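Consider a protein example.
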Amino acid sequence: MPNPTVGVNAETPDLGRLRDYLGFRLRRVHFRLSKGFAERSREYGLKSGELSALAIIEANPGISQTEMARAIDMDASVAVAMITALKAGGLIRRKRTDEDKRRFSLELTEKGTALLNEVFVVLCEIEDEVLRALAPTELLQFNRLLDRIYDHSL
């Protein structure tokens, strides 16, 4: 297979065998996104996974702890500790459901919604910087392909 990286950027070395591995390429992009987000979001004090949890809870008010953990591919025991921290920070409400007293439902507080809105402004700026190399139609196709890969990897 021809090397698609040769000549692209004189400062970027040939990826060798790694150029054929999606995981490596995704990890590099993820690292850039994560690094940019970490640098520009320290003031919000969110730990790993908390932004994803807040966004899933916002999109699914009343979601259970288990469903939320599954949605972000997080171990249930780790999710419980994170949910406890988010609740202590006043960002979410956790309450037992009437139907099943073992099940907790989650929803954002006003403080959680406000924080999520602020953080998503930063997140969008970072993603725009990283993804500006793609045309809008390419980005749409890229997102669809990533979703298809994820859906078929379960």
